[in-house]
Each structure stands twice: as structure tokens, then as C-alpha cells.
Specification:
By secondary structure, the protein is an alpha/beta fold. The chain has one domain: TIM Barrel, CATH 3.20.20. Helices cover 40% and strands 13% of the residues. It has 13 helices and eleven strands. It has helices spanning 7-10, 16-25, 35-44, 47-50, 52-57, 74-82, 84-94, 112-131, 159-168, 180-185, 190-194, 234-243, 264-281, and strands at 2-5, 30-31, 60-61, 63-65, 98-102, 106-107, 136-140, 153-154, 174-179, 201-206, 249-252. Strands 3-2-1-11-10-9-7-5-4 form a nine-stranded parallel beta sheet. Strand 10, helix 12 (234-243) and strand 11 (249-252) form a beta-alpha-beta unit. Helix 3 packs across helix 7. The longest helix has 20 residues, at 112-131. Mean pLDDT is 93; it is low at 293-309.
Length: 309
Amino acid sequence: MYKNLNANILGVTGRQSELIELAMTYGFQGLDFDAVDLLKRVQRTDFENASRFLTSSKMRASGFEIPIDLDSDDAEFEKGVAGLAPLAEAVGKLGGSSGFLRVPAATDRLAFPEYFETVRKRIDRVADTFSQANVLVGLDFSTAEEDRAGKQFKFVQDVSSFLALFKACTSSGVGLVIDSYDWVVGGGTFEQLASIPGNKIAAVRISDVEQVPSIADSTRAQRLIAGSKGTIDNVQLVQLLHKSGYEGPITSFADPSNFAGTKRDAIVARTQDALDQVLTGAGLPTFTRRPETVIEASSTVHEEVGLEA
């Protein structure tokens, strides 16, 4: 496994070149990226110019959010799917290994049995498109109350229904995002985790929590940086996934509220420490890197900085 940075989830903003520099400075080997932004750049110029910072850095382009809402109406979904081919081509050329596709936690469209088949068919269509570019579509589910608030019908919000949906998909391009917080809150077991082939795992995300809440009480703000409480056994989780053959990115998925008012260098440094602690505890190699002198960035976690090429 290799250390991966998702700046967005941590609340870290900056120009693309700045985020790459931060990741490299603190020993990350991979970076999640904005695929929609990449495609826009490609269409404005060409692939070489659009990807020059990522390719020259030698950082791994780990994963990206797929811009498809599985709960959208039919017309919107069809429009979204129609635009996926050029996106898949661009990320495939960049070497992006996985796209992340959020499974709805709730819906107003249909009750569970009927909606299950609708969502399954949609996932297969998306995955088949990305398969042509050798990109795995990783399904991602959420236990957070915010993601089902105001919806009439509950859908995938626990591990059992998450795995049932995954197993029902027919496309070979469908995989799973393993998020330690949602896995534990959603009632997942290590036995279930061990049954998942490593080549079907799109990404691993780790967090901690003060006390494991019920699904009804789960919120995003409860996500703590891994190792801060020791409630979630991320070390055993990583060991199991390593045994299954998973060799992809491992990413810290703590809520930005953990870092309010903290400079972004310090956020990334803490994230590196958390990942190093888990990897070392699991007996896996890791490389800790720190700048000789840490110069505090002028922007804080909540500062908005425009993107550049």
C-alpha cells in the first residue's frame, strides 16, 4: 500500500501545483485528483499541458469522484452517462486507477427492492464505460445522517446491503471503497472484509471515532484522524486487506473540523503521521519525510484559493 493524499476531504485547498508539492514534501506517493477539472483542461489545450504537473511530479494519480448521481432522474442520468467516455479516456491516459461512485443512502424515487435493481443497472453502465480505460469503479456508501435526511426511503447505509449491491453487479469493472469509519459503523466484520479480493478494492480510507455511534446517530463530524482514540482497529483492517492482495492507496479521511484554524502544512504532516502509524503497526513499509524547515503556509484550512493548471 502507498500513502495517498485527498486534500479536499481534509479541507486543504490550493492550486494544483501547491497540493502536489505538499504531498511530495510529506512523503505521499499518490494524490486523489479532480477528473472533471482535468477534462476541462484537456479540452482547452491538450493532454500534455493539462496533466503536466501530475506527470512531471511522478505522483500516482490515485482516484477521483465520478460525476454521476445515481439518484438522479432518468434524463439527468442519461446526460451524465453520455459524457463519461471522454472523461474515462482522459483519466485512463493519466493512469488514474479508480473512480469513486457514491451509492445513495436514501431516495424519494422507489422503495428498496425496485430501487435496488435500478441502481444496479446504473452502476453496471458506468463501470462498463470506465472498464474500457482500465479504470475500476469503486462503490462508496455512507452511514452519515446528512446523506439520508429528508428522504422517504432508506437505501444502502450498512455493510450488508452494500455488499449485496456489489455482488449483484454484473460488470467486471465494479469494486469497493473500504472506509474504516463506515465499515465499523455500518456493522461490517473483519470476516466480511477478508472475503473481498484485493483486486476488487478501489481505495482504502481510514478514520477514528470517540465512540462507535449507531447508524441513526452517525454524522460526518464524528470522523477523527486515525489513531487519535484507537476505537477503530485500522491496523487489523490494513493487515487483512494486505493479505487479500490489495496494493493500492491508503488515505486519511478525517473530517475538516479536526483541523479548524490549522495551517495546511501541519494538517498534511499530521495526516502523514497517522498513516505511518497504521502502516508500521500493520508491519508494512512506509517512508516518513519532513522538510528540514517547515515554513507555515499563509493559507489556513478554510481559505479559498483558485486553481491553476
